[in-house]
């Protein structure tokens, strides 16, 4: 006999974990589609040369890579951005631009397993490719906003910055050559504080104390969007790049406000830098009001050229990625996940052994009305069946013995309150359908 | 520069191919859930020992198998049944029985690529585990029936048989030892005809001409369900196993009829055998009325013991699998697929460069009413924008220049008929929302 087990760093999803995951993916899909993003998929396996050297040394090392049956050197995708670049280079002639796509799919990284980190996880990306227009940036902010609301969060902040603001300042300070090191130091601001960041800027980037202070002065600008924009205007004056960046931030915040996004849900935050060289304009991070310490749950930004490794065609774009695992962890911690292991609301015990056809008919009527209904398959003792229903989290049970069925009615049991009512099954179970709707509405 | 290309046998899904695929998966998910099946997922990679020797020599050979970074011998799953067996053995104590799950996921087989066959494809399975009750068989038939209707097929037949009928007959004929060879021959009946099947039964299974004729007599029983059941009663009389099988077929057809399934959509077909040793009771195949030659689009059956390789606990069950690729090919051939590459119905050209905020507001209002809306990101010439809309398959376009916006109205253009109408934007765009709904309803 073989021991049933999963590989280290991999996991099974039981229904209780899979249902909220499916719902989250469905919500993301709906919001993406509402803005005209279309789905794509790409193969799990790519030629290794497509994937190698596109992320970091670390992603190369972590890649699941092997020789296939035809001795091709292949790898499993470690993100959805590299496959998108290959895909866009290959198909952009057919697709045309602007091209708006979402891609929700599994990726693999052989990293050392640790709490909350797995070797197989899902990414949930959307991007607009082939346009430099700031409208795409504005819509990206709106998608993130709508997405957080649709998932069920009231309190959250999309933090927005523009890389050109910082680039402009670094140019002004003659630090443009050292931007990678400066950004890397700046990214640690929330973690290690301004003094240590200043020290790192001086050590790693060779900045003077005065230069480091200027960069930190930028990062520490706070207040309302208007206040931040005024402060930036002054700090950045004279740098064309910086002024462009501030102008874009101004237009973006005005447009999202006009589209109905409240000021507390979209804030300029000049301290966010989002890693190294990839982003070139608008950048986003998103924090939960009730759980900011979990980190950004939706991040992204604008890039100049997606696919320069595979094509000469310039493909500028902007996109973001929803952090599914992080969000699910947050929702669990905040008690926002239902503790159920069935997608059905209605439980129909197989109470009277002779009445199967009646049960099948009731179940069909309720499904026709849009309910999910599970009929227990065996005529076991009612108590045993109801215990099963309780454990799985059904909302109501329909108890109908031969006596009830002879009178064309049933007992409708609210499994939360324990209340029971006698309901008629006449007229296509119309009364039952209404009564179930009421219980479900009250419990929602 | 690296040539952007996919591996042989793998494919990209562009939006036009991905959208119907997503819709089909969503439909399957909805129907499965309506019967209380819950989603699960398992890892792509399993220990090779979990996967090896579970299918055939062929699946072993076709498996993508390699050493991971920790020198573990791992493989990519080639179906969803073997992972389900491992999963059930590992978790059934937590899950409890009966356990109803669906699993919609990608699998990999390194077979020689040929037309319509890929090395990466999706399976879409549902199973009820841990009960021998025929209610689960009946519900499996009902799920398949509801699924075909929900996908949009009116004309189809679920063909049902019971392996015990044939086993009973083979016992009666003293051919029980040779059932594998007999079944293998019988499976070819539709392809090669009765004479060649009889010859193969004699050659491969050592059956006499008379025995082969008896088996073929069974397979050739036709007519209505009642006629078939009467004929089977006679042929099988005296075999306990055979009588059980006929009894189950009778109960299943009566129950599905009572649940509202028309007789032409569920028929007994004693000629279907579904491969070799795995199935032990009810078996299903499903054929499209307009395209039967494409083969079964949803198949499955009952098995005695799912996971005997991984656990001592007996886990009987029944399930079936929707053939997504085959169905999509059929839908394409039958002209049932919409030729669109956008999930949005409404196209909003960025007509007047100064009016971005108005467009963002209109788009938000329409999204709030449930429409999917794409705003073009650049203020290009209107003709160019409308050409883009045409190519993607939007249904309506909203044209609003500065003059229209000043009067708080817009032109609503039906992109199919070419008709335009002037519509007010007052009251949260109420008139526009109604007018779009009407056009979409008429075009559906």
TrEMBL record, chains A, B:
Statement: the UniProt record of this protein carries the keyword Cytoplasm: yes
Sites where the protein binds L-histidine: 79-81, 109, 123, 127, 274, 278-279
GO cellular component: cytoplasm
GO-annotated molecular function: ATP binding; histidine-tRNA ligase activity
Subcellular location(s) per record: Cytoplasm
GO BP: histidyl-tRNA aminoacylation
InterPro entries reported in the protein's UniProt record: aa-tRNA-synth_II (IPR006195), aa-tRNA-synth_II/BPL/LPL (IPR045864), Anticodon-bd (IPR004154), Anticodon-bd_dom_sf (IPR036621), His-tRNA-ligase (IPR015807), HisRS-like_core (IPR041715), HisRS/HisZ (IPR004516), HisRS_anticodon (IPR033656)
Keywords: Aminoacyl-tRNA synthetase, ATP-binding, Cytoplasm, Ligase, Nucleotide-binding, Protein biosynthesis
EC number of this enzyme: 6.1.1.21
Main location: cytoplasm
Enzyme class: ligase
Domain Aminoacyl-transfer RNA synthetases class-II family profile residues, every copy: 1-349
Record field: catalytic activity: tRNA(His) + L-histidine + ATP = L-histidyl-tRNA(His) + AMP + diphosphate + H(+)
Highest taxon above the source species: Bacteria
Pfam families linked: HGTP_anticodon, tRNA-synt_His
Subunit structure: Homodimer.
NCBIfam families: hisS (TIGR00442)
HAMAP family found in the cross-reference section: His_tRNA_synth
Identification of the protein by name: Histidine--tRNA ligase
The species this protein was found in: Bremerella cremea
Annotated gene: hisS
């Amino acid at each position: 006999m073989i021991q049933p087990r999963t590989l280290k760093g991999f996991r099974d999803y039981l229904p209780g974990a899979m249902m909220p995951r499916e719902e989250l993916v469905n919500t993301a899909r709906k919001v993406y589609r509402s803005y005209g993003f279309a789905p794509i998929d790409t193969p799990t396996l790519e030629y290794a040369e497509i994937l190698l050297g596109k992320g970091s040394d670390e992603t190369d090392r972590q890649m699941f890579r092997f020789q296939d049956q035809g001795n091709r050197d292949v790898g499993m995708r470690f993100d959805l951005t590299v496959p998108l670049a290959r895909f866009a280079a290959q198909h952009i002639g057919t697709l045309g631009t602007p091209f708006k796509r979402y891609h929700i799919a599994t990726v693999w990284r052989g990293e050392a397993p640790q709490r909350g980190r797995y070797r197989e996880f899902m990414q949930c990306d959307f991007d607009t490719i082939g346009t430099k227009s700031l409208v795409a940036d504005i819509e990206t902010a709106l998608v993130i906003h709508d997405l957080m609301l649709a998932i069920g969060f009231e309190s959250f902040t999309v933090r927005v910055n523009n890389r050109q603001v910082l680039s402009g300042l670094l140019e002004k300070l003659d630090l443009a050559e050292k931007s990678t090191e400066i950004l890397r130091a700046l990214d640690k601001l929330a973690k290690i504080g301004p003094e240590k960041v200043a020290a790192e800027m001086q050590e790693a980037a060779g900045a003077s104390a005065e230069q480091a202070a200027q960069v930190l002065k930028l990062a520490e600008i706070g207040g309302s969007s208007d206040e931040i924009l005024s402060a930036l205007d002054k700090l950045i004056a004279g740098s064309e790049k910086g002024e462009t960046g501030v102008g874009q931030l101004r237009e973006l915040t005005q447009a999202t406000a006009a589209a109905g996004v409240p000021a507390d849900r979209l804030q300029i935050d000049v301290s966010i830098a989002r890693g190294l060289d990839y982003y070139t304009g608008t950048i986003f991070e998103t924090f939960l009001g009730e759980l900011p310490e979990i980190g950004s749950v939706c991040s992204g930004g604008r890039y100049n050229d997606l696919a320069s490794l595979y094509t000469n065609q310039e493909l500028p774009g902007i996109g973001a990625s929803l952090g599914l695992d992080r969000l699910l962890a947050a929702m669990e911690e905040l008690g926002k996940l239902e503790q159920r292991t069935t997608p059905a609301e209605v439980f129909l015990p197989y109470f009277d052994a002779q009445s199967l056809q009646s049960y099948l008919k009731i179940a069909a009527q309720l499904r026709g009305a849009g309910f999910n209904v599970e009929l227990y398959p065996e005529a076991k003792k009612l108590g045993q069946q109801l215990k099963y229903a309780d454990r799985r989290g059904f909302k109501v049970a329909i108890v109908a013995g031969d006596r009830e069925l002879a009178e064309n009615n049933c007992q409708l049991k609210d499994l939360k309150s324990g209340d029971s009512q006698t309901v008629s099954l006449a007229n296509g179970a119309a009364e039952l359908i209404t009564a179930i709707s009421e219980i479900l509405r009250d419990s929602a």
